[in-house]
Amino acid sequence: MSSVERNTKEWQDLDVAHHLHPFTDPKYFDTKGPLVVTRAEGSYVWDSNGRKILDGMAGLWCVNVGYGRKELIDASHKQMQELAYYNVFFQSSTPPQIELSRVLAELTPGDLNHFFFTNSGSEANDTIIRMVRHFWEVEGKPEKHIFIGRTLGYHGSTLAATSLGGMQAMHDMGKSLLPGFEHIMHPHHFANGKGQTREVFGIKAAQALEEKILELGADNVAAFVAEPVQGAGGVIEPPATYWPEIQRICKKYDVLLVADEVICGFGRLGHWFGSQAYGIEPDLMPMAKGLSSGYLPIAAVAYSARIQKGLQKGGLFSHGYTYSGHPVACAVALANIKLIKDEKLIERVHDETAPYFRKRLNEAVAGHKLVGEVRGAGLLAGVQLVKDKKTGELFDSAENVAVRCRDHCLERGLIMRAVGQSMVASPPLIITKAEIDDMIDILIASLDQTAKDMGVA
Ligand SMILES: *Cc1c(COP(=O)(O)O)cnc(C)c1O
User: Fold this and answer.
1) Ligand 1, residues 62, 117, 122, 287: which to mutate, most atoms within 8 A of Cβ?
2) CA 253 from chain center: how many Å?
3) Which of 195, 225, 246, 290 fits as disulfide partner to 258, beta carbons 3.0 to 4.6 Å?
4) Ligand 1 atom closest to Cα of residue 156
């Protein structure tokens, strides 16, 4: 409960007066006040009017264990009393930070047994850029500096993470595409693979990496970065042929593979990490969101024995954040991981809720006249909206079809997100089958209403 009590109108007016929102047109709130969320429990949030809303996005893809979990709250309280802050710069460390590194090393794939802590996924990716370039310098290959990402890839919003990602609007704002960053096509069969089978398209999309490496010269390429399943780009899960081919290409040209696990990590795909779901063997893995289920800001870079060897030869590692490995955030992350284990949430997603979610989406949503494709994996879903179901023709982007659908969902008590002309969902891992049914019902009613708005018969 906030210590200050105001009504919705007061909150909204003050918000408009003083607060700039991320990824939001400031003009938007001139016509429509923000949704003011005041409390939350389980899979639900409540707004300032006391309305209960099913959170189909788990906050911003992060509240994996659901809201109001006593174990996480108690862990932060206890750690605050014991040691609210100490840094891990120079020769210092703290028990939560050491313990979290140990616990993560047991969960991460391969020999990714080393960790550097940051406060956000963006900072984790910035860290990787500096760490990987430093690594190649130490190895005597300083010209290996270019990072290859993908169109519609999202790796954060700092200047470097913006460059790493492949969001055109972000590059365009403020001349944000730095030199030394290249992008290849995203492996979205529906958008880019017309007339090819998924399998053939998957290989082709992966081979775009090989072409790019050859164009730039392998001696100039430091790393390839990709999300196992693209999240903010619209929940794009690659064809089964994609990742093995990417893996082959990275090995062949000694290009480091960075699997951005910020969304896929901590159970979202029914595995601890998306890399395990797809058999990816990354050299480095940024993780964030699900690491603390969003209860406190914390992120980490996991990296391999090979990188560690390089760093140990490289002298002073001139990089770090005041709150790297913040003890309270680490304590909450530890409680979060323990809860995921104790409640067998990953098994539950893998064996029960994700198969049910996919079945309901495929049976009840995929056939809707406004839906061109249902995609995703685990508890991640993308629903492509189309003007013409037969041809896959899209709406004029100015018609904001997905935003309309999103607003209809919210009116009916469900938070989903609009990305381009798709609706995306990423519910908490604790979601029940009954709650999934509610999600699907509201989504269908909202699709019906949107079809009416758009004159789709
Ligand atoms: C959210 C996200 C990030 C950025 O994390 P922040 O904590 O918002 O900086 C990076 N990568 C992926 C895949 C993300 O979804």
Assistant:
1) 122
2) 28
3) 225
4) 4
Q: How confident is the model at residue 457 (pLDDT cuts 50, 70, 90)?
A: confident
Return the residue whose CA atom lies nearest to atom 6 of ligand 1: 121
Residue carrying the six token digits 């794939």: 109
Looking at residues 149-177, what average pLDDT do you find? Answer: 98
DSSP 42-96: BTEEEETT--EEEETTHHHHT-TT-B--HHHHHHHHHHHHHHS----STT---HH
* DSSP 8-state code for residue 270: S
Please give the single-letter amino acid code of residue 46. Answer: W
Q: What is the pLDDT of residues 217-264, one digit of tens each?
A: 999 999 999 999 999 999 999 999 999 999 999 999 999 999 999 999
State the DSSP string of 153-210. ----SSHHHHHHS--HHHHHTTT---TTEEEE----HHHH-TTS-HHHHHHHHHHHHH
Q: How far, in Å, from the CA of 457 to the mean position of ligand 1?
A: 38
Alpha carbon of 293 to ligand 1 centroid (Å)? 13
Res 53: pLDDT: 98
For residue 288, the CA-to-ligand 1 centroid distance in Å is: 7
Identify the structural domains of the chain with CATH numbers, from first to last. 35-65+344-454 (3.90.1150.10), 71-342 (3.40.640.10)
Alpha-carbon 37 to chain mean position:
22
The CB density around residue 398, as the number of other CB atoms within 10 Å, is: 6
Q: What is the pLDDT of residue 2?
A: 54
Cα of 203 to ligand 1 centre, how many Å?
Answer: 27
- Length of the chain, please? 457
Q: Which residues does 246 contact at the CB level (< 8 Å), separation at least 6?
A: 206, 209, 224, 226, 257, 280
Instruction: Supply the pTM of this predicted model.
Output: 0.97
pLDDT for 4: 82
Q: Are strands 414-415 and 52-55 parallel, antiparallel or unpaired?
A: parallel
Rounded to an integer, what distance in angstroms lies between the CA atom of residue 404 and that of residue 409?
9
